[in-house]
Design a protein that fits this description.
The strands form two sheets. The chain has a seven-stranded mixed beta sheet with strand order 8-7-6-9-10-12-11, with helices on both faces. A five-stranded mixed beta sheet has the order 1-2-5-4-3, covered by helices on one side. It is built from eight helices and twelve strands. It is of the alpha/beta class and about 325 residues long.
């Protein structure tokens, strides 16, 4: 089977993914690029396909056909890790566009009704995150100074926990929230939360599922560098693992926008990678030095430290502005102001 090149930069423009769009025949997920179906039994292996532990992949015309045997109980955000480990990292499939569509297909085929499939995905993922962070959890924590792995709930759950500890005040804006797990956790804890992402489909999905999960939050479709709100309109602005997806100039504008919007604090988290991982849509690496440059550019008190990746915390509250920027040491409090 040849390596797929569909969905890569420079390819044909495809309609955006509609997470809640109609299913294909037989509850398959079908769009312009992929056809995904859940199977109970394997078809006979053929020379034009690739078979892994959870997937069978072949090209049929202009589509990539993916059969999978991921049980509903395992349909959570770790599906991304399965796809990366078994199909994309080995090079059988390539491209962020293709990755997102196969991921969507695996989730969608967990149930006949699209909304039921996504609710299963959210409930499974949120339950796994909570289990990983429970004091009695059996999962071994990652090293404090390291970066999280990709596509594994056990590796990014501590990032969420640290972000939650750093939130200041009662209102939060999360820029680049994607599926919104962190926003859901914060809103479920009683804070007023707005989740924002450039993807209209993802925000529609979050707005639809949140009430069914018993959580109240707002959603906004917006570029993180141009969020439509007044200055100092929210207590804390969060951007967790967003900046590595943006070119440097775009990232500079996002940091400036977050500072504009935050009354109390800006919290930025990034993976510390040696090379940008294109599988996850990363276009650049971000170092601790980069975080220092952003912090110094604001002229505000800031802190840079490591905890399952790199963190930049900028203090925007007026009574903190007389303090000088500090060096790369962990926050003394480790928690909210």
């Amino acid at each position: 089977m040849s390596t797929a090149h569909v969905g890569e930069p420079g390819g044909a423009t495809l309609p955006p993914i509609d997470p809640l769009g109609p299913s294909g025949p037989g509850a398959w997920y079908v769009d312009d690029l992929v056809r995904v179906r859940a199977v109970g039994t394997l078809r006979q292996w053929s020379r034009d396909s690739v078979r892994t532990e959870h997937f069978d992949v072949r090209h049929v015309g202009t589509r990539v056909h993916v059969d999978h045997w991921v049980p509903p109980s395992r349909v959570d955000d770790d599906v991304a890790g399965l796809l990366a480990d078994e199909l994309f990292s080995p090079g059988w499939l390539r491209g962020t566009e293709l990755f997102e569509r196969v991921f969507t297909g695996v989730v969608r085929t967990a149930a006949v009704d699209p909304l039921e499939a996504w609710l299963l995905f959210y409930r499974n993922s949120l339950r796994r995150i909570s289990r990983e962070l429970a004091p009695s959890g059996s999962a071994a924590p990652a090293e404090s100074g390291g970066s999280p792995g990709h596509g594994t709930i056990s590796s990014y759950a501590p990032v969420y926990q640290h972000a939650e500890q750093l939130v200041s005040g009662g209102s939060v804006l999360e820029l680049g929230s994607c599926f919104g797990f962190l926003s859901l956790r914060l809103a479920g804890g009683g804070r007023s939360v707005t989740a924002s992402d450039v993807s209209a489909g993802t925000m529609r999905l979050l707005a639809t599922t949140a009430p069914l999960l018993g959580v109240r939050l707002e959603t906004r479709v917006a570029d993180a560098a141009r969020f439509p709100a007044p200055d100092r309109s929210v207590d804390t602005v969060l951007a967790s693992h967003l900046l590595e997806h943006l070119d440097p100039a775009h990232g500079d504008r996002v940091v400036a926008e977050a500072v504009r919007l935050a009354r109390d604090r800006v919290v930025l988290a990034v993976p510390l990678e040696q090379l940008a991982d294109a599988t996850w849509g990363h276009v650049r690496t971000v170092s601790l030095d980069d975080l220092h440059v952003w912090g110094e550019s604001t002229g505000l008190p800031y802190d840079v430290h490591e905890h399952h990746g790199g963190w930049l915390v900028i203090e925007t509250r007026r009574d903190r502005r007389s303090s000088r920027p500090r060096s790369a040491t962990p926050l003394e409090s480790g928690g909210a102001a």
